[in-house]
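Q: what does this look like with flavin mononucleotide bound?
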Amino acid sequence: MGPGGMLAAMEFRETVRRRRMVRRFDPRAPLPFNTIRDLVELATHAPSAGFSQGWDYLALTEPVQTAAFWAATSEGDAPDRWLTGLMGAPALLLCLANPTAYLDRYAEPDKGWTDRSLEHWPIPYWDTDVAMGAMVMLLGAVDAGLGALFFGVPAPAHDRVKQSFGIPGDRRIVGVVAVGHPLPHPRSPSLRRGRRGVEEVLHAGRYGEAAPPTATVHAAPEE
Ligand SMILES: Cc1cc2nc3c(=O)[nH]c(=O)nc-3n(C[C@H](O)[C@H](O)[C@H](O)COP(=O)(O)O)c2cc1C
Protein backbone atom coordinates (compact mmCIF):
# COMPACT_ATOMS: atom_id res chain seq x y z
CA MET A 1 0.00 0.00 0.00
CA GLY A 2 1.44 3.40 -1.00
CA PRO A 3 1.36 6.43 1.29
CA GLY A 4 -1.92 7.61 -0.30
CA GLY A 5 -3.52 4.25 0.40
CA MET A 6 -2.39 4.34 4.02
CA LEU A 7 -3.90 7.81 4.48
CA ALA A 8 -7.17 6.72 2.88
CA ALA A 9 -7.29 3.64 5.14
CA MET A 10 -6.71 5.77 8.24
CA GLU A 11 -9.39 8.24 7.19
CA PHE A 12 -11.85 5.42 6.62
CA ARG A 13 -11.19 3.93 10.06
CA GLU A 14 -11.55 7.37 11.64
CA THR A 15 -14.84 8.00 9.84
CA VAL A 16 -16.26 4.67 11.00
CA ARG A 17 -15.15 5.23 14.59
CA ARG A 18 -16.27 8.85 14.74
CA ARG A 19 -19.79 8.11 13.51
CA ARG A 20 -22.37 8.49 16.28
CA MET A 21 -26.10 8.79 15.91
CA VAL A 22 -26.99 12.46 16.32
CA ARG A 23 -30.32 13.31 17.90
CA ARG A 24 -30.12 17.07 18.15
CA PHE A 25 -29.70 19.29 15.12
CA ASP A 26 -29.32 23.02 14.62
CA PRO A 27 -32.63 24.18 13.14
CA ARG A 28 -31.03 27.44 11.99
CA ALA A 29 -28.24 25.82 9.97
CA PRO A 30 -29.44 25.05 6.45
CA LEU A 31 -27.95 22.52 4.06
CA PRO A 32 -27.41 22.86 0.32
CA PHE A 33 -29.64 20.39 -1.50
CA ASN A 34 -26.48 19.23 -3.27
CA THR A 35 -25.26 17.77 0.02
CA ILE A 36 -28.32 15.53 0.04
CA ARG A 37 -27.84 14.68 -3.62
CA ASP A 38 -24.23 13.76 -2.87
CA LEU A 39 -25.21 11.46 0.02
CA VAL A 40 -27.73 9.68 -2.17
CA GLU A 41 -25.21 9.45 -5.00
CA LEU A 42 -22.79 7.77 -2.57
CA ALA A 43 -25.57 5.40 -1.52
CA THR A 44 -26.03 4.29 -5.13
CA HIS A 45 -22.58 2.71 -4.77
CA ALA A 46 -23.77 0.39 -1.99
CA PRO A 47 -23.90 -3.28 -2.92
CA SER A 48 -27.20 -4.84 -3.91
CA ALA A 49 -28.23 -8.44 -4.51
CA GLY A 50 -28.15 -9.23 -8.24
CA PHE A 51 -27.43 -5.53 -8.66
CA SER A 52 -31.19 -5.15 -8.29
CA GLN A 53 -30.87 -1.69 -6.73
CA GLY A 54 -34.41 -1.86 -5.45
CA TRP A 55 -33.93 1.26 -3.43
CA ASP A 56 -35.36 4.77 -3.55
CA TYR A 57 -34.60 7.68 -1.27
CA LEU A 58 -37.26 10.31 -0.71
CA ALA A 59 -35.70 13.59 0.45
CA LEU A 60 -37.84 15.88 2.59
CA THR A 61 -36.00 19.18 2.67
CA GLU A 62 -38.68 21.85 2.95
CA PRO A 63 -40.06 22.75 6.39
CA VAL A 64 -43.58 22.03 5.12
CA GLN A 65 -42.44 18.55 4.03
CA THR A 66 -40.62 17.65 7.25
CA ALA A 67 -43.56 19.02 9.26
CA ALA A 68 -45.90 16.73 7.29
CA PHE A 69 -43.62 13.80 8.09
CA TRP A 70 -43.62 14.57 11.82
CA ALA A 71 -47.41 15.00 11.74
CA ALA A 72 -47.84 11.65 9.98
CA THR A 73 -45.60 9.83 12.48
CA SER A 74 -46.95 11.39 15.66
CA GLU A 75 -49.84 10.09 17.69
CA GLY A 76 -50.82 13.63 18.60
CA ASP A 77 -48.68 13.89 21.73
CA ALA A 78 -46.52 16.97 22.35
CA PRO A 79 -42.95 16.33 21.09
CA ASP A 80 -40.63 14.99 23.79
CA ARG A 81 -36.96 16.00 24.09
CA TRP A 82 -35.82 13.38 21.59
CA LEU A 83 -38.32 14.51 18.97
CA THR A 84 -37.69 18.21 19.58
CA GLY A 85 -33.96 17.71 18.97
CA LEU A 86 -34.60 15.60 15.91
CA MET A 87 -37.10 18.03 14.45
CA GLY A 88 -34.23 20.50 14.02
CA ALA A 89 -32.87 18.34 11.18
CA PRO A 90 -33.29 20.24 7.90
CA ALA A 91 -33.39 17.04 5.85
CA LEU A 92 -35.01 13.65 6.19
CA LEU A 93 -34.15 10.87 3.76
CA LEU A 94 -36.78 8.16 3.68
CA CYS A 95 -35.08 4.91 2.68
CA LEU A 96 -37.49 2.83 0.63
CA ALA A 97 -37.21 -0.81 -0.45
CA ASN A 98 -38.90 -2.24 -3.50
CA PRO A 99 -39.41 -6.01 -3.12
CA THR A 100 -40.81 -6.30 -6.66
CA ALA A 101 -37.50 -5.17 -8.13
CA TYR A 102 -35.90 -8.26 -6.53
CA LEU A 103 -38.63 -10.70 -7.53
CA ASP A 104 -38.31 -9.38 -11.11
CA ARG A 105 -34.51 -9.50 -11.12
CA TYR A 106 -34.34 -12.99 -9.64
CA ALA A 107 -36.89 -14.28 -12.18
CA GLU A 108 -34.37 -13.46 -14.94
CA PRO A 109 -32.64 -16.44 -16.61
CA ASP A 110 -29.31 -16.11 -14.73
CA LYS A 111 -31.13 -16.41 -11.39
CA GLY A 112 -34.11 -18.52 -12.46
CA TRP A 113 -36.58 -18.03 -9.60
CA THR A 114 -39.47 -17.68 -12.01
CA ASP A 115 -42.01 -18.80 -9.37
CA ARG A 116 -41.33 -15.49 -7.56
CA SER A 117 -41.81 -17.32 -4.26
CA LEU A 118 -41.01 -15.44 -1.09
CA GLU A 119 -39.64 -18.72 0.30
CA HIS A 120 -36.41 -18.04 -1.56
CA TRP A 121 -35.81 -15.12 0.74
CA PRO A 122 -35.08 -16.21 4.33
CA ILE A 123 -33.45 -12.81 4.60
CA PRO A 124 -35.21 -10.25 2.39
CA TYR A 125 -32.40 -8.68 0.42
CA TRP A 126 -34.55 -5.66 -0.40
CA ASP A 127 -34.32 -4.58 3.24
CA THR A 128 -30.66 -5.59 3.49
CA ASP A 129 -29.67 -3.52 0.48
CA VAL A 130 -31.48 -0.40 1.61
CA ALA A 131 -29.81 -0.73 5.03
CA MET A 132 -26.45 -0.89 3.26
CA GLY A 133 -27.32 2.29 1.36
CA ALA A 134 -28.38 3.98 4.60
CA MET A 135 -25.05 3.05 6.21
CA VAL A 136 -23.19 4.67 3.33
CA MET A 137 -25.20 7.85 3.92
CA LEU A 138 -24.47 7.80 7.67
CA LEU A 139 -20.75 7.57 6.96
CA GLY A 140 -21.03 10.12 4.16
CA ALA A 141 -22.60 12.56 6.59
CA VAL A 142 -19.63 12.19 8.98
CA ASP A 143 -17.27 12.65 6.05
CA ALA A 144 -19.12 15.87 5.14
CA GLY A 145 -18.79 17.21 8.71
CA LEU A 146 -22.51 16.68 9.39
CA GLY A 147 -24.51 14.56 11.78
CA ALA A 148 -27.13 11.95 11.01
CA LEU A 149 -29.54 9.59 12.73
CA PHE A 150 -31.09 6.44 11.34
CA PHE A 151 -34.47 5.79 12.90
CA GLY A 152 -37.52 3.74 12.13
CA VAL A 153 -41.09 4.79 11.44
CA PRO A 154 -43.52 3.50 14.10
CA ALA A 155 -45.69 0.62 12.88
CA PRO A 156 -49.03 2.48 12.79
CA ALA A 157 -47.50 5.35 10.80
CA HIS A 158 -46.15 3.49 7.75
CA ASP A 159 -49.35 3.80 5.72
CA ARG A 160 -49.89 7.41 6.78
CA VAL A 161 -46.37 8.35 5.65
CA LYS A 162 -46.85 6.54 2.33
CA GLN A 163 -50.11 8.36 1.74
CA SER A 164 -48.69 11.74 2.70
CA PHE A 165 -45.85 11.53 0.19
CA GLY A 166 -47.25 9.44 -2.67
CA ILE A 167 -45.09 6.42 -1.86
CA PRO A 168 -46.42 3.33 -3.68
CA GLY A 169 -48.11 0.89 -1.31
CA ASP A 170 -45.71 -1.98 -2.05
CA ARG A 171 -42.64 -0.02 -0.94
CA ARG A 172 -41.21 -0.63 2.51
CA ILE A 173 -39.98 2.28 4.60
CA VAL A 174 -36.87 0.61 5.98
CA GLY A 175 -35.96 3.71 7.94
CA VAL A 176 -35.22 7.39 7.80
CA VAL A 177 -31.87 9.16 7.84
CA ALA A 178 -32.11 12.61 9.42
CA VAL A 179 -29.24 14.86 8.35
CA GLY A 180 -28.09 18.23 9.60
CA HIS A 181 -25.58 20.18 11.61
CA PRO A 182 -25.21 18.52 15.01
CA LEU A 183 -25.75 20.42 18.24
CA PRO A 184 -24.20 19.21 21.49
CA HIS A 185 -26.37 16.42 22.77
CA PRO A 186 -26.41 14.08 25.73
CA ARG A 187 -24.84 10.69 25.23
CA SER A 188 -27.41 8.08 24.37
CA PRO A 189 -28.33 6.02 27.46
CA SER A 190 -28.19 2.95 25.20
CA LEU A 191 -24.41 3.37 24.96
CA ARG A 192 -24.17 2.46 28.65
CA ARG A 193 -24.68 -1.10 27.46
CA GLY A 194 -21.07 -0.92 26.30
CA ARG A 195 -19.70 -1.99 22.97
CA ARG A 196 -19.39 -5.74 22.51
CA GLY A 197 -15.73 -6.32 21.80
CA VAL A 198 -14.23 -8.19 18.92
CA GLU A 199 -13.27 -11.17 21.08
CA GLU A 200 -16.90 -11.58 22.07
CA VAL A 201 -18.46 -11.22 18.63
CA LEU A 202 -15.81 -13.04 16.60
CA HIS A 203 -16.28 -16.80 16.60
CA ALA A 204 -13.64 -18.90 14.90
CA GLY A 205 -14.51 -22.08 13.07
CA ARG A 206 -17.40 -22.96 15.31
CA TYR A 207 -19.94 -20.83 17.13
CA GLY A 208 -18.64 -20.09 20.61
CA GLU A 209 -15.00 -20.83 19.76
CA ALA A 210 -12.54 -18.04 20.50
CA ALA A 211 -10.28 -16.76 17.75
CA PRO A 212 -6.55 -17.50 18.12
CA PRO A 213 -4.52 -14.41 19.03
CA THR A 214 -2.33 -14.78 15.94
CA ALA A 215 -2.79 -16.99 12.96
CA THR A 216 -2.39 -16.92 9.22
CA VAL A 217 -5.47 -17.37 7.12
CA HIS A 218 -5.11 -19.70 4.13
CA ALA A 219 -7.42 -20.30 1.19
CA ALA A 220 -6.09 -23.85 0.68
CA PRO A 221 -4.33 -26.41 2.94
CA GLU A 222 -0.64 -25.66 3.30
CA GLU A 223 1.65 -27.77 1.07
C1 LIG B 1 -32.13 -0.12 12.80
C2 LIG B 1 -31.84 1.00 13.77
C3 LIG B 1 -32.89 1.70 14.32
C4 LIG B 1 -32.65 2.73 15.22
N1 LIG B 1 -33.70 3.44 15.71
C5 LIG B 1 -33.46 4.49 16.51
C6 LIG B 1 -34.54 5.29 16.97
O1 LIG B 1 -35.71 5.05 16.62
N2 LIG B 1 -34.25 6.35 17.78
C7 LIG B 1 -32.97 6.65 18.15
O2 LIG B 1 -32.77 7.61 18.86
N3 LIG B 1 -31.91 5.89 17.74
C8 LIG B 1 -32.14 4.84 16.92
N4 LIG B 1 -31.09 4.08 16.48
C9 LIG B 1 -29.72 4.42 16.93
C10 LIG B 1 -29.15 3.44 17.97
O3 LIG B 1 -29.71 3.70 19.22
C11 LIG B 1 -27.62 3.64 17.99
O4 LIG B 1 -27.11 3.29 16.73
C12 LIG B 1 -26.93 2.81 19.07
O5 LIG B 1 -27.35 3.20 20.36
C13 LIG B 1 -25.42 2.94 19.00
O6 LIG B 1 -25.04 4.30 19.04
P1 LIG B 1 -24.15 4.96 17.88
O7 LIG B 1 -24.83 4.65 16.56
O8 LIG B 1 -24.13 6.41 18.18
O9 LIG B 1 -22.81 4.31 17.94
C14 LIG B 1 -31.32 3.06 15.58
C15 LIG B 1 -30.26 2.34 15.01
C16 LIG B 1 -30.52 1.35 14.10
C17 LIG B 1 -29.34 0.62 13.47
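The longest strand covers residues 172-180. Residues 20-184 form a domain with the NADH Oxidase fold (CATH 3.40.109.10).
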